[in-house]
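Morning run. Coffee first, then this:
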Amino acid sequence: MTSPSVPRSSATSTLWRPAVWLFERFDASMTLAAQLVGAVAIVLIGTAAAELLYVAFDMTRLSIFFLAAVLVSALLLGTRGGVFAAFLAFAAYNFTLVEPLFTLQFAGPDDALTLFVFLLVALVTGSLAGRVRESERHNRQRADLLATLLEAGQAFAAAPSEAELTRALADRLDTATSGVSIVLPEGAALPEKAFAYAPRGLLEGLAARGWMDPGLHAHGAWRARRISADEPLGLVLWRIGETRARDVQAQDRLCELLIDLAAAALARSRRAGIEADLEADRRAEPLREAILGSLSHDLRTPLATVLASASSLRDYDDRFDPQTRVALADGIVQEAGRLNGYVEGLLNLSRIEAGQLETRLVDLGLSEIVEAAVRRLPAARAAGVETALDPSLAVRADPVLLEQVLYNLLENALHHGGPTVRIEVATRRHADRVEIEVMDDGPGVSPLDAPKVFDKFYRGSGSRREGRGTGIGLSVARGFVEAMGGRIGVIPHDAGRSGLRVRIALDPAREAA
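And here it is:
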């Protein structure tokens, strides 16, 4: 609910034009009595001007002053004022300037004919001028109505939420009626503060009628209408302010048009939300299928290993020699580590997808991060990693995320490169970025697969598909690098070499930039 507000200026305001400004002032509250009084005053002014010229200069052709009074009356007061002024001008002209003076008698047939022709011309002129005046007023009102509806439609379309949209509707109803409005969500009760504006019984009865019947309901100055007859969008109650009786119907129509615009915008917003949810579900379906497939594939083997080793230790522990027990325990630890890494990868992937990944960018040396990532590999596999590092290079990055990126790249190369794969990690400064390259001499990927290696759950084709990767590591690596403001991609190997070559480009440390 909103408090009464001052009507906004029309988008078609023409206050700078004096004639239109005057017309708008006369439109404000012109009753029949006011029109008659205005016509009398204008004709008296014209008569005084004509009488002055008649006495001072003995001029007799002064009918133009009376016609001018009729025109001014019609333009300011409308058709009724113009017609009344025509009869007044006819009488004043005859009374003050036609012999015999100061009587309404005619000196002869010529004078009578002249005066009645004058009356006819004055009536026609006044009627036409009045119609032009009323047509101009109606056109201005239509222009104001269209401008109001256009502005309201734009505001409703730009509203970021349903709450903002209903607030915009209430504001425009307040402005249109110079009163107060209450917008209720579907099925909501009237708030207690609403009863400060009207008795409880009046508002509750009007609201009950509005909920039952989608049409417009009136009780005194109060109105009620459902926002939409077809959809559950809510109910609007409003009170009109100081309004002429002849304008109440037009004001009700304006309010209904505003409500219809808001209903269309609300329905469109809800449909857009439903369509967005459906689109999100449609896009998530392949991801769900990929996750389920990955779970069934990548969890089954380590779980089977853990279960087999644990059950063997439980059932046959006394039959195993110490070396066998250690081997089984190591297998459990190794497979549990794989499961933990898989779950951690899924969690990282979900944070990236939800946009909830937090980064802490600091200046750090590359050599230390690369060496930390290599140390996380099994010792037997880490022996196959060679480094060509520039100890002077530093980057602006998150140390935890960057180490995980490098570890994922190394683990991917080990999984897919085969038991004898050789891996090289090199760093260098190129233009305004610092680059890290992770290269292996494994089977590599085809040019068609290269753009897809960072896709979620992508396992590749051919010989690389035989590895035991989950299809998560490289996708997480890309998300981490992009979160740090960097770039990552597959680049071609040098001529004559095979394998996968991944390059990361990051911003240099601020001190080194």
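The longest helix spans residues 245-316. Good start to the day.
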